[in-house]
Amino acid sequence: MKLSIYTFIKDGIYYDFHTVAMLKHHLPLADEIIVNEGYSTDGTYEAIRDLDPKIEIFRERWDRSDPKTWHVKFKNRAREKCTGDWCILLDSDEFIPEWEFDRLRECLEQTEYDILPIRYKHFYANYKVYQSVLGKTPELNLRIHRNLPEVVVWGDGANVRTEWDTIDKYRQAPAFDCHHFGEVRDPARLRQKWRTQARQHDEKNARWDRVPGKIFDLLPHKWDDPDLLPRMDVYEGPYIQAVREDPDEFVRDEFQIYELLKKQRSGQPASSE
Predict the structure, then answer these.
(1) Structure pTM?
(2) Nearest alpha-carbon partner for 87 in 176, 2, 173
């Protein structure tokens, strides 16, 4: 069985994704990794182009005229280049833990399902804090699938499906862990991401946000946001290999929120000063 992973990225260094770490982490799992690279101008392409022969990078000029669905087409373009029997759609801040690798391959050899879900743990600020109360944040997404032409990336790009599929059909299927570090990034870029997404997904008037990135540099996200902290909890492991090998890559707040949550758990005053 041949297994493909596919992803897409543009200006991953500027937006503080974990692209290099993500690609390296999945080399033992995948037989090939397909990357749709959008002609980055920040050194991202140069950082990933020679990482490993398993990684196949093709470059496209991205048409982002539709702010709601523009990225779906580029994920599908990467999917179409996969040659594996099975494929996994991952963003460049998503990591399947290495302790899932053998179980995942064994399952793909035997399962009768065409699509399988991944189960998220969403980290925040650093690799020792995660979102324990999900709210609207998804726990499951359909990301693992047979390499069939009728399976496509759809909607907001977070899931794959065939024309007749819904996620409910697969809630009883085997699910595999995925550690998501999308909120472990530079606080200016995190705030910029949230604003951009809110504008893109505005049902009444989907549009691109035109606020310059320099504004977010001056007004970054504050990690101790009182609206977010009640959703967070301490995570004490196990930590994925990428974290163990380069922990600094997965810390953006100097463990401020981890220490704050530990104090809260112990009943100490929860001041973040």
Answers:
(1) 0.92
(2) 2
